[in-house]
Amino acid sequence: MTEATLEQTAKALVADGKGILAADESAPTIKKRFDGIGVDSTESSRRDYREMLFSTPRVGEHISGVILFDETIRQDAADGTSLVEVIRDAGIMPGIKVDTGAKPLAGFPGETVTEGLDGLRDRLNEYAELGARFAKWRAVYRIGEDIPSAACVTANAHALARYAALVQEAGLVPIVEPEVLMDGDHDIEVCDLVSEEVLRSVFNELAVQEVALEGMLLKPNMVISGTDCPEQADVQEVAERTVRCLKRAVPAAVPGIVFLSGGQSDEVATLHLNAMNKLGERPPWKLSFSYGRALQAAPLKAWAGKPENLETAQAALFERAQANGQATLGTYA
Fold first, then answer.
1. 332, part of any domain
2. What gap in Å lies between CA 241 and CA 188, rounded to an integer?
3. Domain that holds residue 298
4. The pLDDT of residue 56
5. Is-catalytic flag, 111?
6. Catalytic annotation, pick one of 18, 97, 136, 219
7. Residues 6 or more apart from 255 whose CB is under 8 A from it?
């Protein structure tokens, strides 16, 4: 696939008023979510839940792509249609999570490096045949005493860049996700400094690996106060600091930035995105979303594993998708 085609796909994922639904929870993560609503996590219950999300009427008006887990991209809907076809019929592009998770970084207690490069080329080719148009890889950085270390920052940046190069080789658009976690009592200034350091390292490695920036998307954290910080920055400060940090570290060639919600509530994540898109000077890249819990919390609770709740749950998803679609335009109220 040509760089022009990759660029076209990347731009379509951040089309005006649209963003990405992250539905790539691992088996342990979705079990935890299902436990919260009293539903057993089985292959069929996971299928039913995700089919409910993907078949929501008109959801394609505000969702451009959906990130899938390996199990999901291979599953069929209840009527035998593949879930990939259900997604396509909604006017949405299927994507796939390809990393195998964050593992302890040898010699650096409390820090991790994301694995999954072994065999990735073959897996990507298979996912492309199954219908994937883009892929995602997440790196995690924890803020604490003397961390993240230079070793953690460098190791994860290198892995993200090698992943992105392989994804583009396979004709897919890579979503590069370096997440500085909210966990901790650090203030927003510390998050700002660490986020910029991480982003600079990532884009340095992307350049070394000759990744075409026009054919990728960035999925970063917002610059935000630590969860346990006694002084929480307000919506406007989060918006201003996040955009300023990104302007310092992210090249203009990148078509779009799709934020993760990172543990924020659905409403707060929407307000932050909306405030960024209301700032006076427009940044060189689209600012959109790639939310998991911030889109799914309401429909998951409404669904509760009961078929009779289908329409209510789908209405809840559409409401959150519409709200975030408006936030990409700075028109959410």
1. no
2. 9
3. 3-327
4. 97
5. no
6. 219
7. 7, 10, 11, 14, 214, 216, 217, 285, 286
240 occurs within a structural domain: yes
List the chain residues with pLDDT less than 50: none
278, 92, 96, 71: which is closest to 175 by C-alpha? 96
Total domain count for the chain?
1
Write the pLDDT tens digit of every residue in 293-314.
Answer: 999 999 999 999 999 999 999 9
Tell me the C-alpha distance between 61 and 66, whole Å: 13
pLDDT in tens, 46-68: 999 999 999 999 999 999 999 99
Query: Residue 63, Cα to own-chain centre: how many angstroms?
Result: 13
The answer to whether the beta carbons of residues 215 and 6 sit under 8 Å apart is: yes
Residue 264 lies in a domain: yes
Tell me which residue of 90, 27, 83 sits closest to 321, measured CA to CA: 90
Q: What CATH number is associated with residue 207?
A: 3.20.20.70
Nearest partner of 181 among 245, 244, 111, 247, judged by Cα: 111
List, in order, residues 6 or more apart from 33 with CB less than 8 Å away: 25, 296, 300
- CA dist 166 and 5 (Å) reads 16
According to DSSP, residue 141 is labeled E
- The yes-or-no answer on residue 18 being catalytic is no
Residue 234 lies in a domain: yes
Catalytic residue, chosen from 25, 177, 179, 196, is 177
Q: Is the pTM of this model over 0.70?
A: yes
